[in-house]
Design goal:
Pfam families: DUF1275. This protein is mainly α. The protein has eight helices and two strands. It has a two-stranded antiparallel ribbon. The longest helix is centred in the last third of the chain and has 28 residues.
C-alpha cells in the first residue's frame, strides 16, 4: 500500500510518462519504426534476427538494448538509489536526459541509427531514476506494469477485497500521461519531424531546474 504521495511525485510521474509517450511515438513513426522506451518488442526482434542469421539487424537490436541499459547504469551511478527521495541528484539525471534527446534530433534527421541509440539511452536513464516509492514499483517509460496492476485491482474489487486507491490513481496518472504524450508526439511529428524530440528535451531541462529550486526551498525550511 502506498502510504502517501506528495504533490511533486504526482506531477513528476505524469510529466515523465508524458515524455516517454512522446519519445516512443517518434521512434515508431520514424524511419526504423522502432520502439524506444521499452525493450520487450526489441528483444523479440533480436531473437528473430538471430534466428534468421541477420548479423546487421542482430547488432542493431542489441545496440538498442545496450543503449537503454547504459542509460540505467548512468542513472544508478548518478542517483545511487532506486527509491524516490527528495534531495537525490535527479536534476543532473534530467539534464543528461535532455542532452541525449537533443543530440538524437540531428542524428535521426540524418537517418542515423545512432539517434535511436541516444534516445534509448535517455529513456533507460529516465526509467531507472525512479523505480520504487513508498514500497511500490514506479515505471514511466512503459505501461505493462500499470495495466497489470489495473487488472489485479479489478479482480480484487470483484472479490470484494480492498483496493489501494493511491496506487490505482498512480496507474491512471501514468497511463494518461503516456497516452497524451503519444498523441502530442504524433501530432508534432507530422509537423516538425524529429525536431519533436526538442519538446521533451526542453521539458526535462525545465523539470531539472524546477526540481533543484524546489529542493533548495524545502532544504531551507
Amino acid at each position: 500500500m502506498i502510504s502517501k504521495l506528495p504533490r511533486w511525485v504526482w506531477t513528476g510521474a505524469w510529466i515523465l510518462a508524458f515524455i516517454g509517450g512522446m519519445v516512443n511515438v517518434v521512434g515508431l513513426l520514424g524511419f526504423e519504426h522502432q520502439a524506444i522506451t521499452h525493450l520487450t518488442g526489441t528483444t523479440s526482434m533480436l531473437g528473430a534476427a538471430v534466428a534468421a542469421l541477420d548479423g546487421a539487424r542482430t547488432l542493431h537490436f542489441a545496440a538498442v538494448i545496450g543503449s537503454f541499459v547504459a542509460g540505467t547504469v548512468i542513472s544508478g551511478y548518478i542517483i545511487q538509489d532506486s527509491t524516490l527521495k527528495l534531495g537525490r541528484r535527479y536534476g543532473v539525471a534530467l539534464l543528461m536526459e535532455s542532452a541525449l534527446l537533443a543530440l538524437s534530433v540531428p542524428l535521426l534527421s540524418g537517418q542515423s541509427l545512432y539517434g535511436l541509440y541516444t534516445a534509448a539511452c535517455a529513456c533507460g536513464l529516465q526509467n531507472a531514476m525512479v523505480t520504487t516509492y513508498s514500497g511500490t514499483v514506479v515505471r514511466t517509460t512503459h505501461l505493462s506494469g500499470m495495466f497489470t496492476d489495473l487488472g489485479i485491482f479489478l479482480g480484487h474489487a470483484l472479490r470484494g477485497l480492498p483496493v489501494d486507491q493511491r496506487r490505482l490513481r498512480l496507474c491512471f496518472l501514468i497511463i494518461s500521461g503516456f497516452l497524451l504524450g503519444g498523441v502530442a508526439g504524433a501530432a508534432s511529428f507530422h509537423r516538425l519531424g524529429y525536431a519533436t524530440l526538442f519538446i521533451p528535451a526542453t521539458i526535462t531541462a525545465l523539470a531539472a531546474l524546477v526540481y533543484e529550486g524546489y529542493h533548495r526551498r524545502q532544504a531551507a525550511k
